Amino acid sequence: MSPISALPGRPAEAAPLTVTVTDQPSPAALAQWRQLVATSPEGDVAQLPEWAGLRATVGFQVRYLLVHAGPGGELLGGAQILERPLPLLGRVGYLPYGPLVAAGPDADPAVSAALCAALTELGHTRLRMLFVQPPPGGEAISRELLHRGFRDSEANIAPRQTLRLDLSNELSALRGGLSKRLRTWTNRWESRGVTVRLGTQSDVPVLAELVARSGEHQGFAAVSADYLSTLLRDLGGEPGREDGHAVLFVGELAGRPVAAALFTRCAGTLKLRFAGMDRDEAASRSNVPAAVQWHAIEWARRAGLRWFDFGGISAEAAAALARGESRDSVRGVDRFKASFGGQLHRAAPPVELISNPVLRAGYDVSRRWALGRRLIELAKAALRTGRLR
To answer: What is the per-residue pLDDT across 47-101, written as a single tens digit (0 to 9) for each?
Structure first.
């Protein structure tokens, strides 16, 4: 793309913005992008090049939008878009927790505008469907994309709402925020033979099996053991490595692994990505999954991280908590997450662009009947797991 110099509200003397669209950025550009993601207040591992490499193992290609202050200048913002073809739909792209602008999502409106213009062009020229979940604080990005022809999206390509714990609080305060039952358990796990340790590559088969069991119980498509192994290897490195982006915790009962959780780490936040448990009565009775989460919270606080993120909750649970209802009013895994006392945290409104009117009409109609909704859910599962089944 050509340099952009004249944008409303931008000083005439400011250096022109250069927007680059590429699937093969230079090593220097990737290093700059990695640094911007890691230092953005709402940077997420899903915008790191390592995550793009992980998604490549299940059929995704990556495309970068990078905005510099003139050719070869400072990187001011960007986006990492993941793309792949899907049967009947064509080439689909999604952008989780982006685009990002240096020093905050809305720091420079001209950079945001340039990114939104590039995303719009991409959605019209290369992709049949483009889904964007801007990060928390990115409401101006959502509005700008809506102004450019996007529309509100219900595709849920990435969790919009989650619960977060502020790890700058004292551990006693965090414990005080637990449900009464959980507070009691923090003093009982050791006597019940419950232990939690850092996991390694050798624990991935156990993690995969536990995640698959939880998927069967909760109705979600589980990723493969190979995928989990690649995530831990490429993003985590050695167990507990200070600069790693992934960490695994394994909960054991009398020395037997019965629960596990894989977290990602970026921009001062430890976020839950995958978790599973043995639905054995003894494991449930000893509340081992909660022990894993509490141990991870303690670990994240010792590591100097600011936030602990439970990896998303349902829109229904978020609405109930926003209304001030008791955390006991929500159900299932949402209730489990709420029992730790986190605060509701929302990303900006998600948007989508389906430029082809026939495809857009077909997509809208499909959501109104059972088989169509099932096909859409299968497509979403394929986007999540890479499995076209």
So the answer is: 999 999 999 999 999 999 999 998 878 999 999 999 998 877 789 999 999 999 9
Which among 302, 291, 340, 354 has a CA at the least distance from the CA of 123?
354
> For the whole model, what pTM was predicted?
0.90
State the chain's maximal CA–CA distance in angstroms: 69
Indicate the range of 54-58, 93-97, 219-223, 252-256 predicted with least confidence.
219-223
Q: What is the Cα–Cα distance from 82 to 93, expressed in whole angstroms? A: 5
- Secondary element (H or E) of residue 171: helix 171-176
| Token reading at 353 | 């662009």
Least Cα distance to 38 among 303, 248, 228, 243 occurs for 243
- Output 303 or 282, whichever has higher pLDDT: 303
Residue 173 corresponds to which tokens in the numbers above? 């305060």
Question: Are 267 and 300 within 8 A, CB to CB?
Answer: no
CB 111 within 8 A of CB 99: no
DSSP string, 185-248: HTTTTTTTTEEEEE--GGGHHHHHHHHHHHHHHHT-PPPPHHHHHHHIIIII-STT-TT-SEEE
CA atoms within 13 A on the CB side of 198: 13
Residue range 345-377, pLDDT digits in tens? 999 999 999 999 988 888 788 777 776 666 666
Q: Coil, strand, or helix at residue 82?
A: strand
- CB count in 10 Å sphere of residue 18: 20
